[in-house]
C-alpha cells in the first residue's frame, strides 16, 4: 500500500463505502453499482434485484447465527447429541 497512489486508495475506499450502502440507496443510485457488479462477474443479463430481494438477502446474511442459536436452544436435543458423540468416540 505504500507504493499505491493515494487517489487510487481514496477511490477504492469511497467505492467500498458506496458498495456497503448500495442496498439502501434509491434505484437511480443503485443502478451503477449493479452494472459494475455485472461487469465484474460477467453476468450481464441478471436483473437488478428488487428492494425486497436485497432486504431478504441482508436479513439472511445478518440473522444466520442468531436464528441458528434460537433453533438449537429450542429444538436441539442435547442429550441425544451427546449419545452420538459417545458412540463416535467408542468407534475409534
Description of the structure:
InterPro entries: Peptidase_M13_dom_2 (IPR042089), Peptidase_M13_N (IPR008753). This is Peptidase_M13_N domain-containing protein. The protein is mainly α and 92 residues long. It has one domain. Helices cover 76% and strands 0% of the residues. It has 4 helices and no strands. The radius of gyration is 22 Å and the shape is elongated. The relative contact order is 0.06.
- Mind summarizing the main beta sheet? none
Summarize model confidence as the mean pLDDT.
87
Terminal-residue CA separation? 50 Å
Alpha-carbon Rg, integer:
22 Å
Shape, please? elongated
Series of H and E elements: HHHH
The level of helicity is over 70%
Structural class: mainly alpha
Low-confidence stretches: none
What is the number of helices?
4
The total number of structural domains is: 1
Strand content: under 5%
Domain Peptidase M13 N-terminal: 3-85
Organism: Toxocara canis
Protein name: Peptidase_M13_N domain-containing protein
InterPro entries: Peptidase_M13_dom_2, Peptidase_M13_N
Short description:
The chain is built from four helices and no strands.
Keywords, separated by commas or semicolons:
92 residues, 76% helix
Amino acid at each position: 500500500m505504500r507504493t499505491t497512489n493515494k487517489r487510487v486508495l481514496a477511490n477504492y475506499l469511497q467505492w467500498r463505502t458506496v458498495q456497503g450502502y448500495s442496498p439502501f440507496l434509491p434505484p437511480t443510485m443503485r443502478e451503477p453499482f449493479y452494472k459494475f457488479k455485472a461487469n465484474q462477474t460477467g453476468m450481464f443479463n441478471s436483473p437488478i434485484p428488487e428492494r425486497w430481494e436485497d432486504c431478504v438477502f441482508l436479513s439472511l446474511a445478518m440473522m444466520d447465527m442468531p436464528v441458528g442459536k434460537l433453533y438449537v436452544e429450542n429444538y436441539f436435543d442435547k442429550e441425544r447429541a451427546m449419545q452420538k458423540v459417545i458412540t463416535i468416540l467408542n468407534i475409534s
